[in-house]
Specification:
3 domains; 5-stranded mixed beta sheet; mainly beta; Immunoglobulin-like; 364 residues; 27 strands; 5 helices
Length: 364
C-alpha cells in the first residue's frame, strides 16, 4: 500500500456529497493500526495542514485494524466537556489534569486562558484518562514555553525543561499559537538537554512511544493561619501535597519561634502532624529547650501516599491557658528538611515543587 508508520491516510474521494466516510483522516501507527482524528481541532493540534495525506481504496483500508481515536496533542489546548464544569490540561497519553482554580489557570496560561479551551464531545471523553489535579502552577508535561528574557523555546517534562533550537522547530510540526509566550520562572525547571530534530516522542500522534511518567510531588499552602486560642487545640500551619506518583514522606523539619515557655512550663505541647483523616504522621513531640524562644523539631517516619492522591496535613499543638499578652508564633516548614521517597522503589526524591522556600505562618 506504500504507507509507513506516522503516515496520514484516508479513503479515496468517492465524489459523492452524500457520503462522509471518505472525509475521515487516520493516523497510521507503528503497530499497523489506524487511529481516527475525531474532529478538525484535534487534527490541528498535531498538523498545520493536510499535505501528505495518502488515499487508500476501501479494500486497502479494511486490511488495517481500527484503534482508539487520537487525543489532543499534549500542551496545546485546554479541554472540557459540557456536563462537567472543569477545565483540563492534556498530558501525554491523553491524561487529563484538572486545572483546580482560575488562579492556577492564569498563572500558567495568562489572563486569557479561557481562549485556549476546547469542548470535547462526551462520546470521546472516555478516550482520555483522568490524572492528578493541577493544584499548583506547574506546567503540565508536554507544554511548549518561550522564555521571556531571550525567547528561547523549551518543552516541559515533569520538573525539567528541554531546549528546542530554531533549526529543530520545523521538524516538530508545532503551531506557534500553541506556545506559551512570555514565560518566566524557567529557572525552577532543571535543564535536561536539547530536543533532537524529528524526535518521534513529540511527533507520534498515537503516543505509543511516550513512556508514561507520573507527576512529581508538589506542595502548596491553600489555608492561612488560624487565630491563636489559649487552652485548646491549635492549628499552627497547613500544607497540601499533591502527587501523581506514589510517594513516602520520610522526614519534615519544623521551626517554631515566639513565647514558647512560661518559666519552666511550655506554652505549646503535643506538637504533631495530622492528615485530614486524623492520622498522626510521625507521632507527637514536645518542646525541649526550657526558656527558648525558637526551637526546631524534626519529624520522621514513613507516611505513604498512593499514586494520584492529595493529602492535606496540619501541624497541631495544644496551647497553654496562659499564652501571655499579645502572643504570636512564627511557624515554618523548612523545605530543605523535607525528605520524600518514591513510593514504588523507596529511592529518595530530590525533585519536588516548589523549589523555593516554603512560606512562614504567623499565628496570633
Amino acid at each position: 500500500m506504500g504507507i509507513a508508520p506516522g503516515d496520514l491516510i484516508k479513503l479515496k474521494d468517492d465524489h459523492d456529497a452524500g457520503t462522509t466516510e471518505d472525509k475521515v483522516v487516520y493516523y497510521y501507527d507503528q503497530d499497523w493500526f489506524r487511529h481516527p482524528f475525531p474532529n478538525q481541532k484535534v487534527y490541528d493540534s498535531w498538523y498545520k495542514d493536510f499535505s501528505g495525506v495518502k488515499e487508500l481504496t476501501k479494500e486497502e483500508m479494511a486490511e488495517i485494524r481500527l484503534a482508539k481515536p487520537i487525543t489532543y496533542r499534549p500542551g496545546t489546548r485546554l479541554v472540557k466537556i459540557p456536563s462537567i464544569p472543569k477545565v483540563y490540561a492534556v498530558e501525554p497519553g491523553g491524561v487529563l489534569r484538572w486545572v483546580e482554580t482560575e488562579s492556577v489557570a492564569k498563572a500558567l496560561y495568562g489572563n486569557e486562558w479561557n481562549k485556549r479551551v476546547d469542548d470535547v464531545a462526551e462520546s470521546f471523553f472516555t478516550t482520555y484518562k483522568e490524572g492528578t489535579p493541577l493544584t499548583t502552577p506547574v506546567w503540565p508535561t508536554g507544554t511548549f514555553v518561550r522564555r521571556d528574557s531571550d525567547t528561547a523555546l523549551y518543552v516541559i517534562e515533569g520538573l525539567q525543561r528541554r531546549y528546542i533550537a530554531p533549526a529543530v522547530l520545523p521538524s516538530l510540526r508545532l503551531n506557534e499559537s500553541h506556545v506559551i509566550h512570555g514565560a518566566g520562572g524557567l529557572s525552577d525547571y532543571a535543564e535536561a538537554g536539547a530536543v533532537a530534530e524529528g524526535d518521534w516522542k513529540y511527533l507520534d500522534a498515537a503516543q505509543n512511544s511516550y513512556i508514561d511518567t507520573l507527576p512529581r510531588p508538589s506542595f502548596d499552602f491553600p489555608v492561612g493561619s488560624q487565630p491563636l486560642v489559649a487552652g485548646g487545640e491549635q492549628s499552627l500551619a497547613t500544607f497540601r501535597l499533591t502527587s501523581g506518583m506514589p510517594v513516602i514522606i520520610r522526614r519534615m523539619r519544623v521551626r517554631i519561634s515566639g513565647p514558647l515557655w512560661n518559666g519552666g512550663s511550655p506554652r505549646l505541647t503535643g506538637i504533631r502532624l495530622v492528615d485530614v483523616n486524623g492520622q498522626n504522621l510521625f507521632g507527637t513531640q514536645q518542646l525541649a529547650v526550657q526558656g527558648s524562644t525558637e526551637e526546631t523539631l524534626t519529624f520522621s517516619g514513613a507516611y505513604t501516599m498512593p499514586e494520584k492522591t492529595i493529602s492535606i496535613v496540619e501541624l497541631k499543638a495544644e496551647t497553654a491557658a496562659d499564652l501571655g499578652a499579645g502572643a504570636a508564633y512564627a511557624v515554618s516548614i523548612e523545605r530543605d528538611g523535607v525528605q520524600l521517597a518514591d513510593g514504588g522503589n523507596g529511592a529518595l526524591l530530590t525533585d519536588f515543587w516548589p523549589r523555593t522556600a516554603f512560606p512562614t505562618f504567623t499565628v496570633k
